[in-house]
Amino acid sequence: MSATTAFVSLGDLRQRRRAVSGEAPVSGGRSSSAAAGRSGCGSAQGPQDMAPEVWEKVRNHPCYSEEAHHHYARMHVAVAPACNIQCNYCNRKYDCSNESRPGVVSTRLTPEQAVKKVLVVASAIPQMTVLGVAGPGDALANAGKTFETFRRLRAQAPDIQLCLSTNGLALPDHVDEICALGVDHVTITINMVDPAVGEKIYPWIFWDHRRVTGREAARILHERQMLGLEMLTARGVLAKINSVLIPGVNDDHMIEVNRAVKARGAFLHNIMPLISEPEHGTFFGLTGQRGPSAQELKAVQDACMGGANLMRHCRQCRADAVGLLGEDRSEEFTPERVAQMEVVYDLERRRTYQQEVEAQRQAHHAATVSAQAGGAKDAGQELQVLVAVATKGHGKVNQHFGHASEFQVYELDAAGARFVGHRRVDHYCQGGWGEDEQLPSIVQAINDCHAVLVAKVGACPRDELRAAGIEPVEAYAHDFIEQAALAWFADYRGRVARGETVHQPRGDARIRQGAFTNRAQAA
Amino acid sequence: MALKIVASTCSGCSACEPECPNMAIREKGGVFIIDAAKCTECEGHFDSPQCVAVCPVDGCIKKV
Hints:
heterodimer; A: alpha/beta; TIM Barrel; Nucleotidyltransferase, domain 5; 16 helices; B: two-stranded antiparallel sheet; 1 helix; globular
């Protein structure tokens, strides 16, 4: 059973609400430790582990459900340019269409333009089920624009779920309106629960008509974040916590953040790597603060698995991203193009299409359940490996190695297959078709994996992958990912048992820093 | 007595606009400008100019 994106049942949420409000727990309820990632609530799988009303909120939300992210798409509209705090990892001045990271956006939109864009995209991509306001500043530092967008969209496309993300400073002031507008999901970026750590991350906040700096700023921000989270939990709004992992600053502290947000009823905890390069112009970028390696990130995520449920499929997307999480189709929907497009909001067509998506998803789910059950039979095997998978969606191994802009990483052992992350290897900034030049960086990105499962791979990269000790595997093309991964794993263990293959540990891998490459530098 | 926004460094984020007690700030061509005739540097309203306090770009807003 997947533990990486496990979810909390409503019973747990109620329990936490009681914990927050100081009420005594009702005997016979699940203890909150039962919600720990590894235990039986691993409900990335389906509705059986979740209260129906919670399942209904997350089932089509790619950012809240690891399973849904294979099938459903989201979009962000950049209606919120202003921010009320400064973070050392953020520089919103920088704008490049070739770069992908939070806070970056090509064009700001008015609420009216945003709604038109959403309707156009919803018609072109019927599996787009979620609209988020994620900046490029703070959704609630621009509360007027954010809520105006939501109000207009609610009236015209009631089937689209609304969500927003915030640093939390203004959150307590807006919980009523969030509830009134039916915003189901709120993401709060919480990087610390100790102002002594916070002052290394936040140089200042704008609070009560003053610029507040130092530890005082971090203390106020921390108190507002915790209050906002408690208020959301008390009102039944699902809260996801994003944390930026900054080696040497908050990596040892992350387990405390995880505990604190879990105690206040956070639904999911998403620990993301710091994106930091000098060319981004951020404080951390300019001072040489590095981001974590793939294994450093995984180690912190694994350490937090006993606490609040972890999310590992976050793509740290742009504030104007469109599409499935692993893709960005925002270029197809520039303001010029959207202005020329006619809006045909066909709810019936969207429903029909989503029924097909749901059928694929059920098939994926069934295949995963049976594959995981099969994997568990061979318990006793000590082997644990990572594999990289090239997928275009639908939960299948269905992408050509050379076309992959990212690989999904699964951990395999006697307990089954678990999604543990993804690695970006975008080539879209390269002039030409540079599979050969790209290869060393792809190897670096998946260097901790024993195999890479693909629909197809060319002869050249195949040889180079083998030379690097990563087995290229085409045998499971178009199979469901978990099924394919476990079938390969069974074969691999067989080969190891027979002495045909010598099992060797792999090294660490590099996390790609945004998609900033040649063309952007030349421009 | 007034402030001005250095257009070349303004990121157009709009954070300053709603903070101005004198409604002196508006957008022009993707960046923001201060109407010097209306700007009081927040004297009588706040301890420090609000646009400067909230602006994410150091040195973007200066005395005229």
